Structures are given as structure tokens and as C-alpha cells.
């Protein structure tokens, strides 16, 4: 089986080299030919074009900057990939675009799966990557071993586009948390707490001792908010005190103000003595969906470490 890898940027280089390290026959291509030597030294073959990769590879991987580049590469692949071949797009991409391109390739007997990765440049080099895969389950199972040469957490998350939907949910949460944490950190430091002491205090609190997303299993994902471990009323009081301090210090707190407003709405609904996670349910209602998984599903996910 010959593998093709297109896009040898900071992420792609590490992944392509790991496929070669795992013993696979790899042909590579990038718009910048000056990047070829390290791949040739590893035993990969250099291709002069996208079409050349497509003609010889049984499985093609692409790692590209974004949707525009992926769509352009798709044009070169479509006319050259053989029926029965497979394309894994590792790009963080538009789920809608991926689904549209998938339909076109399926008409030519080619399977496309979206498989964006998470772990950064160091993870791409070390193989410590999470890979979120969307597409045909049978194709995923058949080629999962290849993906395991790239990442140590390879997950099937659903139909085509689901991989990118999961990645975007993760990244939006990650980036929003960064700016929210900057808000509360500036408030604490401006109030006179030394940065190192504040960081230590936050790490040792109840939230700091929990993996960021593990807390979702507590009440929210089960859609069961009773009994309350910390009430909406108490959380609303604390948010109000934080905003009062921030106002005194002239520290803007847009994210915390939004949270305060959500908890205020929950109180107006009569949820004051319910668990402080219940305001999360308001967003479910706005989105028009019900989120509820079983305790067994919670256990299975947490058991993955």
C-alpha cells in the first residue's frame, strides 16, 4: 500500500515523517520544494504535483492551511485518484465544504473522511495527537491503523463533517476560555494578588483540580441537576461580587457579565435553588436541542483517561 501526503507545513511534516517511521511507503508533495530533503532522507518519495501523488497513492492525506487550500487541492485529486482509493483530510476545515466535496468524490468511487487533529506542532512530531474522524465507519475501521501512526487518540465521531464539528467545538471552547481567564486573572492581580499566588490558588480550587471538560459529566450531560451541589443563587451572588470588584478596579469583564446575565435569567425562571450548572440548559433551549447521555456513556468516556 502506497500512501500520499500533501502539505508539509509545521503540522504536516511531523505526521508525514511518522507515517514513514512506521514503515509505510510514502510519496510526498508540497508547494515548497525546498522542504523535500528531510523527507527524502527519511526514505519518502517526492512528487512534483498533487496529481502525481493522486495517481500512485492508495490512501492520500492532506494537511492544509484551511478550506480554500483544501478545495484547490481537491481539484487536482479528483481527476487522478483511482476508484476505491481513500482521502483523509487532516485540515481543520468547514464541515459544510467537506460534506460537499465528499459527495463529488463518492460519485467517482473515492472515499473522503475528515480527520482534523489536535495537539500542536510538538504533538505532530511526537505522534501525541487526537484525531477526530468523520465519514464512513467501515472505511475508518479499515484504515484506523494508518491513523494510529500519526496520533495516539484516534476517534470516530460520526458522519462526514463530524470530525471538523468536534474540532471546532473544542477549539472555540479553548480560545474562549483563554480570554475569559485573562478577565478574571487581571481582576485578581489588580486587586493585589501576586500572579504566581493567584495561579496557584486557581489551580487548587474545585475547578482547577478537574480536567476542563470532565466537568460536563457532572449534571449537564446527564440532564439531571438535582440535588444541587452549589446553587444558582450562590453562584449568582459570587458573580455579582466579582463584577462589583471589577467595577471598582476598572477592569472590563465582558465574559463574566454574560455569565451573570445567564444566571440572572435562571433565577427569574425559579431555578435559584437548583444546581449552578442548570443555566447551561438555557443555551440548549436556544439551540433547539436536547442533550442527554446515559451514566454508562459517561463511565465509558471517563475510562478512556
Structure, explained:
It is built from 13 helices and nine strands. It is an alpha/beta fold and 305 residues long. It has two domains: 2-163, Rossmann fold, CATH 3.40.50; 167-302, N-(1-d-carboxylethyl)-l-norvaline Dehydrogenase, domain 2 (Orthogonal Bundle). The strands form two sheets. Strands 3-2-1-4-5-6 form a six-stranded parallel beta sheet, with helices on both faces. The longest helix is centred in the middle third of the chain and has 29 residues, at 162-190. The chain is elongated.
Task: Please sum up the structure shown.
With 305 residues, this protein is an alpha/beta fold. Helices cover 51% and strands 12% of the residues.
Write the layout of secondary structure elements.
Blueprint (H helix, E strand, L loop, with lengths): L1 E5 L3 H12 L3 E5 L6 H6 L3 E2 L3 H7 L2 E4 L4 H12 L7 E4 L5 H12 L4 E4 L2 E2 L1 H7 L3 E5 L2 H12 L4 E6 L3 H29 L4 H10 L27 H18 L4 H15 L11 H8 L7 H8 L3
